[in-house]
Amino acid sequence: MNGAAWWDGGLYFSCLSCGRCCGEAPGTVSFTGEEALAMAEALGIGIEEFKSLYVWGRYGKPSLRERSNYDCVFLERPAMHCAVYSARPSQCGEFPFWPEVLSSRQSWDRFALDCRGMNQGAFHNADEITTRLKRQIILQHRGSATRSGI
After folding, report:
1. What is the pLDDT of residues 128-142, one digit of tens each?
2. The whole model's pTM is what?
3. Contact 19, 118 (CB under 8 A)
4. DSSP 13-65
5. Which residues have C-beta within 8 Å of that of residue 128, sequence separation ≥ 6?
6. At residue 81, what are phi and psi to the nearest 5 degrees?
7. How far is Cα 11 from Cα 121, in angstroms, rounded to an integer?
8. Where does residue 70 fall: left (phi above 0), alpha (psi -120 to 50 degrees), or beta otherwise?
9. Which neighbouring-strand residues pair with 55?
10. 72 and 22 Cβ atoms separated by less than 8 Å
11. What sign results for the dihedral spanned by CA atoms 42, 48, 51, 57?
12. What is d(CA 44, CA 127) in angstroms, rounded to the nearest whole number?
C-alpha cells in the first residue's frame, strides 16, 4: 500500500450474525481448491458431488451457487446459519475487510447501509485491517491459480 489508507485510523466492526452478507444481494463467493475439499468433507460428500450441487461459474470463475433470492446456497433461514460454517471459505470470515469494501470510504459506507455491524462494536486497527486485506488479495490470486481442478 502506498501512503496512508483512508482507514489508517482503524475501523469498528462486530459481526451480528444477521446473515445479510450471505444473501439478499447478488455476488460471488470465491474459494480455493482446499476450501472446496473442506466444504465437501463437512457435508459428507465427494468433491464431484459438491461441484455438481453447489458450484457454478460466475464472472468466469467458480463460485458458490445462490438461490433465486440471492442467498448463498449454504445460508439456512430463518436461523441465518451457515451449513458449512466450520469449513466456510475464508472470504466469508473476512467480511467486511474485502478489497472492494475497503477501496474507499464511500464504498465502506455503502456496504454499511446493509450491515449493522459496521461502524460499531470491536475496534480493528490499521495493521490488522492491512493483514486481513492482504490475506484476501493473496487468496483471490491463489484461488484463481488453483481453480482449474474445481
Report:
1. 999 999 988 887 776
2. 0.81
3. no
4. E------GGGSSS-------HHHHHHHHHHHT--HHHHHHHHEEEETTEEEE-
5. none
6. -115, 145
7. 9
8. left
9. 64
10. yes
11. positive
12. 38
